[in-house]
Amino acid sequence: MENPYKRKKEPEANKQLILNTAAEIGATSGWFQVTFQAIADQTGLSKGGIIHHFRNKEELLEELVGQSLAELTEWVIEEKKTSGNHIAPIAFLRFVINKSSDLHYRRTMKVILQAALVNEHYKKMWEDWFTEHITGGSVSDQDINSLIIILVADGLWYADNLGIYGISAEKKEQIINKLLTL
């Protein structure tokens, strides 16, 4: 006789559910509020089931940041294709502006930002990603126009993630157009 209480095992779906829940908790309440118990409470999974996928919170964060950077890479590549502008800093600026209202993007970026703020390892991961996909080298070695665009994109990114300034889409488009004259 089959055990009626046996739950169907879906390891990849459960792992992704854990990552998504951790990202949501981190984005809304801060990374320090992400605990295995909080994830268990929201997902209905047991703490043991979570530990099966991630031995500790650091391993969970490593996977989450890696997944977030991979997703960010896809988005930036898509923005380059869509906009037809292959100059990476401009594509990054357009990406930041075009994605600013996307809640999934904002959650993903908050995870990266929080991780980089609390741990030097994740800051280095972000810097390495940025060097590879946006600057192609040191930010300080960029020409002044590219550096201005990068700093504006960063400012808009931080403002969106912190929920400050409330810059309208129209103003953001004006910013792009002004910068394109550089």
Rg calc: 19 Å
Low-confidence stretches: none
The tally of strands reads: 0
Shape: elongated
Percent strand: under 5%
Count of helical regions = 9
Query: Could you spell the SSE succession in H and E letters?
Result: HHHHHHHHH
DNA-binding region: 35-54
Keywords: DNA-binding
Pfam families: TetR_C_28 (PF17937), TetR_N (PF00440)
Protein name: Transcriptional regulator, TetR family
Description:
With 182 residues, the chain is mainly α. The protein folds into two domains: 1-55, Homeodomain-like (Arc Repressor Mutant, subunit A, Orthogonal Bundle); 63-180. 75% of the residues lie in helices and 0% in strands. It contains nine helices and no strands. The chain has helices at residues 11-29, 36-43, 47-53, 57-83, 88-99, 103-118, 120-135, 144-162, 169-180. The mean pLDDT is 84.
List keywords for this structure.
9 helices, Arc Repressor Mutant, subunit A, mainly alpha, 2 domains, 182 residues, single chain, 0% strand
Q: Quick recap of the structure?
A:
Residues 35-54 bind DNA. This protein has nine helices and no strands.
Secondary structure: elements and pairs:
Layout: H1 11-29, H2 36-43, H3 47-53, H4 57-83, H5 88-99, H6 103-118, H7 120-135, H8 144-162, H9 169-180
